[in-house]
Amino acid sequence: MNSTEWKEKLSSIKDGFSNSAIKSNAGNIDALETEYLGRKGLLMLLLRDLKDFSLEEKKILGPLGNTLKAEITSKLAELKNKFGAGSASSLKNDFDLTLPAFPYSKGSLHPITQTINKMTEVFLKLGFSVAEGPFLENEYYNFEALNIPEDHSSRDMHDTFYSAIKDSKNKDWLLRTHTSPVQIRTMEKQEPPLRIISPGRVFRRDAIDASHSFVFYQIEGFYVDKNVSMADLKWTLETFIKELFGENVKLRFRPSYFPFVEPGAEVDMSCVFCNDKKGKCPVCKGTGWIEVLGAGTIHPKVLKSCGYDSDKWSGFAFGAGVERFAMLLFGIKDMRVLYENDLRILKQL
Ligand code: DAH
Fold this sequence. Notes:
Layout: H1 3-23, H2 29-37, H3 42-48, H4 55-82, H5 87-93, H6 111-125, E1 129-130, E2 136-138, H7 139-142, E3 162-166, E4 172-175, H8 181-189, E5 194-203, E6 215-225, H9 230-245, E7 251-256, E8 261-270, E9 289-298, H10 300-305, E10 314-321, H11 322-330, H12 337-340, H13 343-346
Parallel strand pairs: 1-5
Antiparallel strand pairs: 2-4, 3-4, 5-6, 6-10, 7-8, 8-9, 9-10
Helix pairs in contact: 1-4, 2-4, 6-11
């Protein structure tokens, strides 16, 4: 190659680069740089050819080559600037190496959702329908209509999150502490007979530990009709628990106090982990029984506060903690597992 040919080549490289630079975008700046200035880039190879020229020729051609190199370098810097903080980093932005690789995992329902679905399914088969209520309640629905008047000591059992807001009747707003207010809201709107369940979140000012959380799930159930008795309650709950845990499970009703039912009971099921052998089972603590529900026949005052004639209608109600059921169904010992969303654990459930 003589010096004229070298100059022609230099000028065609210059034209080629100018054309490509006009058409460039964020995605090909790096490639453009490699094509012209890379170790085997067009300009770099041409500059390398200078070694075959005489000293005089080198003195003329060298500066021409270096000028073009400087021009290309500055043009590339300008383009990188234009397309963002450098093409390499803008590429990095739309290519996230931390994303999971193909084939993508499909995910699954959270164990709490699965548990609510299982519990709900059984009650749907028994003719119950699902109702929902608001998380933000007022004192009337959360307490008063459920026969828990102001200053009643049983309010102490509910460590409540009160808001600073009052409603138009001067009642305080609060995050509901249980799903029982759905009883009142439903009975106010509908005439008996009623068979309702209501799963949902409830809130209490509780510290988090293996069996407590400030937000958790309950399922409320209630049935209002003529001549509903504790026997109906017992049959319904036995059918429910046996559907979930098998035919051999036994239920035990212990008298207990809930202001909105009379009589009231706490319901235990026989321990499915040690089969009543009363050993050192950590779940039932060796008692052979696990408390799963609160229940009773609905207090006449509650029926009356919803406008029902309590001489004509009677009902039963029950409330269960969903996490307790999830722990029993999935064999989880610490409730926090359900909230920490550690995929390594949730994937196993
Ligand atoms: N609301 C009660 C609680 O959160 C649970 C409960 C007990 C609900 C007895 C009921 C019931 O419907 O009859 O502690």
